[in-house]
Design a protein that fits this description.
Length: 273
């Protein structure tokens, strides 16, 4: 079994991500929500750690990302930051903290940066949230955009199916991607859209485009940690590659522990004082 070591130990910054795109070096991004996993992921050489609002699903057991609060996101981001040395840490702005009122959006972003020490925020949407993004950028807070399937709008879409298959929606997505680059976002996530469309956006933009279910023609990939490690077995979309089966490993390990306790095998003579 090989252990990943990264030669370049320098801290990843937003400008280094843009340089990576220029060099044609792919960007690896993964979610994390706590200190211990963030430390493992960072030590393995991850470029970007996303404190995703998917915490609402995988950490809190909610059906959607909507219920998670700003306080809860700050709690997760604070824990991740403590475990991270090299990766850039980006924190999702949760639903209801930036749509509609740009002053509130700025106040939410400032709380994330001040209280968690995250290094950037991610926001879902294009022209509709332009004012909020611009105000946050003016305060010197880096913003990562997120277009395509935007889970915070699940009640508008009604489904988690592939987005922007129709020409009109694809055109709006391309226009929004250009807008986000023009106003100063440092990167963009494209979720669950046709690979050809994602490749076109990545080739037209100078900022890195990170895909999830958007094919291989983009500048990097992001997955939800619980999905790719097989902790969350109930979610298996076509785009997901599972790199481990942790749910089986955990189930077997915990089962052995229960057996050992019940049979008085644990603790043995060398495991006591
Ligand atoms: O919240 C999240 O985990 C995300 C990724 C799916 C990109 O936004």
């Amino acid at each position: 079994m090989s252990t990943n070591t990264v030669d370049d130990k320098r801290k990843v910054t937003t400008s280094r991500l843009i340089e990576m795109k220029q060099r044609g070096e792919k960007i690896a991004m993964l979610t994390a929500y706590d200190y211990s996993m963030a430390k493992l992921i960072d030590e393995a050489g991850m470029d970007v750690i996303l404190v995703g609002d998917s915490a609402s699903n995988v950490m809190a057991g909610n059906i959607t990302t909507l219920p998670i609060t700003l306080d809860q996101m700050i709690y997760h981001a604070k824990s991740v930051i403590k475990g991270t040395k090299r990766a850039l840490v980006v924190c999702d702005m949760p639903f209801g903290t930036y749509q509609g009122n740009s002053k509130e959006a700025l106040a939410s972003a400032i709380r994330i940066m001040k209280e968690s020490h995250a290094e950037a925020v991610k926001m879902e949407g294009g022209s509709e949230i332009r004012e909020s993004i611009e105000r946050i950028l003016c305060a010197g807070i880096p913003v990562m955009g997120h277009l395509g399937l935007t889970p915070q709008s699940i009640n508008k879409f009604g489904t988690y199916a592939v987005r922007a298959k129709e020409e009109r929606e694809a055109e709006k997505l391309i226009a929004d991607a250009h807008l986000l680059e023009e106003i100063g976002c440092f990167a963009l996530v494209l979720e669950k859209i046709p690979a050809k469309l994602a490749e076109r956006v990545a080739s037209e933009l100078t900022i890195p485009v990170i895909g999830i279910g958007a094919g291989g023609g983009v500048d990097g990939q992001v997955l939800v940690m619980h999905d790719m490690l097989g902790i969350n077995q109930g979610f298996s979309p076509k785009f997901l590659r599972r790199y481990a089966d942790l749910s089986t490993i955990i189930n077997q390990a915990v089962g052995r522990y229960i057996d050992d306790v019940k049979t008085s095998d644990f603790p043995n003579a060398s495991e006591q004082y």
